[in-house]
User: Fold these one by one.
Assistant:
Number 1:
Amino acid sequence: MAGPATLLVSIAHQARALRTLQAAAAPHPLCTPPQPSHTQTFSTSRSGPARHSPGGAQELEEERKAPWKSPKEGEEGGDLSPPSPGEPRAERLARRETLRERALHSKMSRLAEATSQLVQVEQTLLLPLLQQHPLPLHPKDSIEFTNICSHMILQREGQQFERDLHEAHQCLKTIVEKLISSLAAFPSDSYIPVQSALRQILQNLLAT
């Protein structure tokens, strides 16, 4: 059995993992928006020959190669339709890569949200109950979760990054499942709100 001190250790590691996930989900520092001068050049090049402005020609070429961009990103005439049979292979690969990156970013954001919810539930609901009824806890799982997230942020992309993201997802799911199992061993009305909140977090994780 473990009391509040053990839970606080787990919460500390989960909070560290949360900060790591939030940092990994942030835009890459090299991905800076274009400078105003580039934007002005691009606007001019669209109405005139692209050769008059190397910067404008490059951005115009990028626009031609990326028809799937949304108008919300500052481009006009965005095309979100499926690839046509005659679409060049390079453009199909670029489209697929963009969709994959968006899916990974979405999964990481949901993982960070679930981690934040877990920390909040543990701090506000579970911690007060442990002062009266100690529960079986597994802080090693939270340590493992932190280590996976720390390793993941060093990758930022590639297959290893995807594997780390999957492992982090599975590890957090295990933490929540073990907490639910521990609470089930102590049938009491006081644990109902905690169990309900944890089941909701687990449901969100299973949906990702």
Note: Residues 4-25+97-207 form one domain.
Number 2:
Amino acid sequence: MDDNIYQVYEDEIQALEEEIKLLTEKYEEMQQESTSFSDEEILESIKSFQREMQGESKGHESPSDLKAQLESLEADLSFLMKLTGFQFTSHSKKTMERTKEKTVQKHRLSGNCYSLSFQLEFQLLQMQSKEKVSSVVTDLSIIMDSREDSDVSKFVSSIEEHGNLITFFRSLSTYSEWFEHRRRTFLHFK
């Protein structure tokens, strides 16, 4: 009977240790995300914020001006969504590695383009030299409802192989728009 009680306590201790380990990893990940900016970026952000605060204290930015800016940005976003057909539903970013010269971030993105849904997962490798920053997409994975269309499957495979996101978004926009036109046309004749 005593061994049974000890086992219950040991199981509870082990469960708590695992929970502590998971929470510690989550905390370290959050710390890494919050420290993913360089000192120069933080200083520039602070200076920019101070300039904005000085402008507000002088009366340049009133709440009505900010509301007008927000409405303008929402109108621009709505216009871009209508123009391209893209509507992003979720995005997550996780910094995998950060050094002075390079940063590796893992992105997950999902959304719709007209009536076709898609999910992307990729790593973005940013290399920083003194003059410029270069970015490379690696480990691209695209999940898309291809509706058993072999051409779309071939296209997605080719994009994943080359890691070319711009080509993916441009082609998906055009394909989805015409897919929607074909769908409406076939519905008209039914």
Note: The radius of gyration is 24 Å.
